[in-house]
Amino acid sequence: MAPSFILDFPDPRETAEEVLISKDCLQRIADAVCIIHKEVPSQLFLDIFYLRYIKGMKQTEMAKSLNLSQSEISKRLMQLSKLISNFLDNGRS
What we know:
- The protein is mainly α.
- It has helices at about 15-40, 45-55, 60-65, 70-90.
- Helix 1 (about 15-40) packs across helix 4 (about 70-90) and helix 3 crosses helix 4.
- The protein is globular and about 40 Å long.
């Protein structure tokens, strides 16, 4: 079973419709990351996504936490971004 995230942090200034749309978009991205991670767990995409976008860590902090170089973190963030984009463009989620 693939790991999952449920994201829930609405902005009180948004309308109910905007909150639902934002939540849906964020959930689709999180779902995509979980599926991508399951396909290539060795790349640590789920960990990288979690540390960067959920915990808000900087690349230097992530590199230290995951025992990778900062350039490797940067490379994998770019790779993950492209994979998410392709995943969503292909309607897989």
